[in-house]
TrEMBL record:
Domain (Aminotransferase class I/classII large): residue spans on this chain: 24-339
Alphabetized PANTHER family for the sequence: HISTIDINOL-PHOSPHATE AMINOTRANSFERASE, HISTIDINOL-PHOSPHATE AMINOTRANSFERASE-RELATED
GO MF, one annotated term: histidinol-phosphate transaminase activity
N6-(pyridoxal phosphate)lysine PTM positions: K209
HAMAP family assigned to the protein according to its UniProt record, in alphabetical order: HisC_aminotrans_2 (MF_01023)
Protein name, UniProt field: Histidinol-phosphate aminotransferase
Superkingdom, natural source: Bacteria
Taxonomic classification: Bacteria, Bacillati, Bacillota, Clostridia, Peptostreptococcales
One Pfam family it belongs to: Aminotran_1_2
Keywords, sorted A to Z: Amino-acid biosynthesis, Aminotransferase, Histidine biosynthesis, Pyridoxal phosphate, Transferase
Catalytic activity as recorded in UniProt: L-histidinol phosphate + 2-oxoglutarate = 3-(imidazol-4-yl)-2-oxopropyl phosphate + L-glutamate
């Protein structure tokens, strides 16, 4: 007997690539050594694992405040930005209401919509995956979405909406807009300083990318108090464990490390982009910690795996497209060396 609810019967589980390579550049992860010393500090801390976490996450929110400049009443935290975006759908979208996003974009947005029996619309990008703001606004007016999710910089293309463009979209509608800025530390167009200027905007951030802490699964939302209060009604108690909260707090206290790391990633990203273009590859300018490109080489991913390098391969409408994370200087050099050998 199939006991699944109707909305999820056509879904396939989200499966990560189990391939093991010494140069792993497929998942936009950061430098394993950036905050490695916090593991030792964690072991020396006085965390008590027999107690539930402080559900107000007061120390963590204090450091988020020091980073982005907003009080705890304007912040909620969660088990990665993925949980928080799921919470946004759970909080604000009813069955048969519409969620609008970009196409292509992060695949989980459409999955969240399907799980909650909502309609999903992907606003088509133009040639070269450029986002046409006027076209998005037209789609918004025609489809009247309850929630709009914008990934900026966009994953997997790396394209960036400017502040001016995001403002134009936000002002064009009363719909709630969730601005997913998971990669924005690598870009220069964050709207975080203006989030309180709009009553229909929330911004989702994470420590997975720029802070190189994907393994602790900590993200947060910044928004006006009304939006945060609504999400708090749905958020499960103790949704972030004590260990993750501690490490995220300590990393935010040492955010200068992240700033230095981001500077290096931007420099390495430009090197990879220019090297691919020089090799005749159709690569796309990126505002994130990866480079998206097209290649007609048969079995490119497998040929790179044979050289101990793993990148992300896409399929379906993006067949022939790839995404390589920007790693350490040594990892990037190994990727480019392997790529040159393949071609």
């Amino acid at each position: 007997m199939n006991r699944e609810k109707e909305s999820i019967r056509s879904l396939e589980p989200y499966v990560t690539n189990p391939t093991v390579c010494s140069v792993k550049l497929d998942a936009n992860e950061g430098d394993k050594d950036l905050y490695r010393d916090l593991l030792k500090k964690l072991g020396e801390s006085d965390i008590t694992l027999n107690y539930y976490p402080d559900d107000s996450y007061s120390e963590l929110k204090k450091e988020i405040n020091n980073y982005v400049g907003y009080e705890p009443k304007n912040i909620t935290v969660g088990n990665g930005s993925s949980e928080l975006l799921d919470l946004c759908v759970k909080t604000f979208v009813d069955k048969d209401e519409t969620i609008l996003s970009l196409d292509p974009t992060f695949s989980m947005y459409s999955i969240y919509a399907q799980v909650f029996s909502a309609k999903y619309i992907g606003a088509k990008a133009e040639e070269d995956f450029k986002v046409n703001v006027d076209s998005i606004i037209k789609d918004i007016k025609e489809n009247n979405p309850k929630l709009i999710i914008l990934c900026n910089p966009n994953n997997p293309t790396g394209s960036v909406l400017t502040k001016k463009e995001v403002r134009k979209i936000v002002k064009s509608t009363d719909a709630l807009i969730a601005l997913d800025e998971a990669y924005m530390e690598f870009g220069d167009e964050s709207l975080i300083d203006e989030v309180m200027d709009y009553d229909n905007l929330l911004i989702v951030k994470t420590v997975s990318k720029a802070f190189s802490l994907a393994g602790i699964r900590m993200g947060y939302i910044v928004a006006n108090e009304d939006i945060i209060t609504s999400i708090e009604k749905v958020r499960a108690p103790y949704n972030l464990n004590s260990l993750s909260a501690y490490i995220a707090t300590e990393a935010l206290r040492q955010k200068e490390r992240m700033f230095d790391y981001v500077k290096k990633i931007k420099e390495e990203r430009e090197k990879i982009y220019k090297a691919l273009v020089y090799l005749g590859v159709k690569a796309y300018k990126s505002g994130a910690n990866f480079v998206f490109f097209k290649s007609d080489i048969d079995n490119l991913q497998k040929k790179l795996v044979d050289k101990d390098v793993l990148i992300r391969k896409f399929s379906g409408k993006l067949d022939g497209y790839y995404r390589v994370s920007v790693g350490t200087k040594g990892q990037n050099e190994k990727f480019l060396e392997a790529f040159k050998e393949v071609i």
